[in-house]
UniProtKB/TrEMBL annotation:
Domain of life, source organism: Bacteria
Protein name per UniProt: Copper chaperone CopZ
Length: 74
């Protein structure tokens, strides 16, 4: 499943927690690229990641917990 991460609405976003979440849920990112994607997201640009189908529900819950807005692409 591919999703767009649109923005983070948390008043004080936890950059480390967001990067760790992206690294854990994404099927093709390591921690270094997750840190880069987190920087892009927090600057206000949308990013696209792919999530393995087996953990879609928990991944979306984790994103909501971090106040990250997303849209499902496919």
């Amino acid at each position: 499943m591919k999703i767009n991460l649109l923005s983070c609405d948390a008043p004080r976003p936890d950059k480390r927690a967001i990067a760790q979440c992206i690294a854990e849920i994404s099927s093709n990112n390591d921690m270094a690229s997750s840190n880069n994607l987190t920087d892009i997201l927090l600057e206000g640009d949308a990013i696209e990641i792919e999530i393995a189908d087996r953990n879609t529900g928990s991944a979306l819950r984790a994103l909501r917990k971090l106040s990250i807005d997303y849209e499902i692409i496919e």
